[in-house]
Amino acid sequence: MIYGIDLLGLAKYPNIDIPEGFALGAFANTFGDSLPAIERAVLKGCKHVRIHLLWDDGHNFGSSSLRKMVSEARRVNKLAARYPGVTWEVSPFCEHNIAAPDPYLKRCAEVAESCTIVNTPWRGGLSRKYKNEVHGLHSAPNTGSYNYAFDGMSSPDSDVPKIAKVHGASECLFLWAPQFNGKKTGSDSTPRPERKAWPSQELVNSVAFLATKRGSVRILQNTLWKSHAEQSNVPPAIKELKPVLITPFDAPQAIIIAAKNRKEIARMPRDPDLCVDGRVRYYAGQWGYRLAEKAITVSGSPMCEVWINDVRVGRLNPAFRGPTFRE
């Protein structure tokens, strides 16, 4: 299995670099023409690309979609033919409700002959002839060749190692965050043309870091470590998308130390505003994956301990959320 980054709105942030060794996922034209940005990624070394040709908010695809699908498939195939050393995958309809998709997949295969065709259902049928892609937390592993994508479910808020284990037989596992579609959060209902919460390179790198090993985590009851605090502003405020510790323990600050040698990694000041349930928040000034990288540099391991006064509230990898997740 390889990991991918599902930068579905790539046309809106074409200068993002794809982390080394990752596949790239994108829409062909849902957010504007992404093919120039995809070609840029290939020229910079990306070796695996999966492109969803069409999206519909109501998942309504069928014979009326064929003409546009064929047009987009031809465009992608023309690009793919120029780079035969790259693995090109084409999904005609992203999250369709077509009960018997193979005739549509066959037509796409006739046009996109330089590409592997991928069937991506919503409530539609799986294919026995073509590769499938499943989305979402409760998707069962497929018995044949398939991809898995978090699409629509925030990877930073999910138990990525657990899901990667469940879908360990998938050929490519695509990570995703709401900002990859221009949304501040998963529940952001801003219409697509008005979205502006596009990802930074740091956010992309932080999501890619979720493909590393998390390690053994122990966090006290009623305490939560969020590797990515929620975004409310565009551009994000300084503390947004950085780690936040939520706990009943109250002090001026929390201190992060490397678990292996107890060297200090960072200090997290107490936020003046309490949570609605009365718990205290402490925000980090650096990205969670940067804290993990610093811990690796000083101790050889990403594992850290978080202390408030004389209480160790957790042993964790600061790049990962825990111990509870959103589903």
Descriptors:
single chain; 327 residues; alpha/beta; TIM Barrel; 2 domains; 8-stranded parallel barrel; 5-stranded antiparallel sheet; 6 helices; 16 strands
Summarize the model shown.
The chain is an alpha/beta fold and 327 residues long. The protein is built from 6 helices and 16 strands.
Walk me through what this model shows.
- The chain is an alpha/beta fold.
- The protein has 2 domains: 2-211, Alpha-Beta Barrel (TIM Barrel); 218-316, no CATH class.
- 19% of the residues lie in helices and 25% in strands.
- The protein is built from 6 helices and 16 strands.
- The protein has helices at residues 35-43, 66-81, 102-111, 160-166, 201-208, 288-299; strands at 2-6, 23-27, 48-54, 87-96, 116-121, 131-135, 146-149, 172-175, 218-219, 224-226, 244-247, 253-258, 264-269, 280-283, 304-308, 311-316.
- The strands form 3 sheets. Strands 1-2-3-4-5-6-7-8 form an 8-stranded parallel β-barrel, surrounded by 4 helices. A 5-stranded antiparallel sheet has the order 9-16-15-12-13. It has a 3-stranded antiparallel sheet with strand order 10-11-14, with no helix packed on it.
- A hairpin with a 5-residue loop joins β12 (253-258) and β13.
- α2 (66-81) packs across α3.
- The model has no long low-confidence stretch (mean pLDDT 97).
